[in-house]
Amino acid sequence: MRDELMSGLGEECGVFGAFDFDGEDVSSYIYYGLFALQHRGQESCGISVTRTFEKGKNVQFHKDLGLVNEVFDKKTLNSLEGNLGVGHVRYSTAGGWGRENSQPFVIHYIKGILSMAHNGNLTNASVLKEELATTGAIFQTNTDSEVIAYLIARERLHTLSIEDAVRSASEKLEGAFSLVVSSPSKLIGARDPFGFRPLCIGRKDNIFFLSSESAAFDTIGAEFIRDVEPGEIVTIMNGEIISNKMRTTKKQASCIFEYIYFARTDSFIDGHSVYKSRITAGGILAKKYPVEADLVVGVPESGLAAAVGYSQESGIPYGMAFYKNSYVGRTFIKPKQNERTSGVQVKLNVIRDVVKGKRIVMVDDSIVRGTTIRNIVKMLKEAGALEVHVRVSSPPFKFPCYYGTDVPSKENLVAVNNTLEEIRESIDAESLGYLEIDDLKDLCPGLSYCDACFSGNYKGGEPIKEEDIGCC
Questions:
Q1: Which CATH class is domain 272-457?
Q2: How far apart are CA 342 and CA 447, in angstroms?
């Protein structure tokens, strides 16, 4: 569990699409797909569907603030009749909090209706928005996702097909984007040339799916087909997958933090197992920072696999020290500092019998400000732990992220203005060890990745204007 207590730190959004060529409704598939992606966004969600076999049939959609099982009930899902649709779960950074910023965006224009869901963050959104506004576009939100939707609609006026419009629009975008778009008869996926954000294709019988993560396919009993490649536009129509490439090409730069924290442990991204990546990270920590201890524990959820890796490499037994209340939202969603702090105890509880009288190695995925991990160390010691040695399965955060992870300015990052020893003292741990930047290459061998939040190496460039900092 990352320390999310700094202002505005958030995770990714999640996108999902489904197209049933037998003509059956897909809203329930999208619902369960979004449920599987709930960890990527817990502020709002939405589903948009259409019937491809009824000409002139309007798009039906429902979206609102809240978790997937709060926004949708059986009656609402049954009312969403259509065999083609897209869905979205959102955590806001850019654009702010509010129902109007919920996705998918549904746009009525001269060529028909399109629905779009977006994960990522553009670094040139403000320039594109000004350009669109001068040609008459009226924006209902302040998100970069709406800019993309309008840009696609405009490009469609000058292209022969919606997939050509998506490609033309995508070539004007800078930064990170994974898109799922539905037209009256096509499901389209697009991934930026760097491949910052994940997107993959699945299938179940005659139903095709697009998803931010492969784990969602397991939830609905679908088969993982492949990842959408960086810079690729896939069009699903007539029971086929048609691939096109953007003219813009870049060296792949998948977000390494997907493997450390964002993605579900059971997902595969760009051919690499998230679980194995985290096991590897824990093993590296055990080699670099050995310590005499009685038990290795992980902070749920993304610290658990890394803790197993530490245990396997060190030979120190692994144990479950925390009970996690799965019905509590992530701590950073709380708007006030005191609410975030108290939320840790609501969400996590220490199992006293496990830790009492023991020297503990506690593995977490990252530290941002330090408040959350300090509270967890305190909870362990209050439960009777004799020592707490903290191991972190990522390098120190030292730079903001501009590609969809809302890591803010440097002054909020504990590792910028404090030494390792000062951080250790501030969280009251007996010892502290981070993964090093050079270790990241071992998590996913052969993968070209982005580590800008740790290194400051922004492969996709920096925002043109301050208002471009943020996420979908």
A1: alpha beta
A2: 39
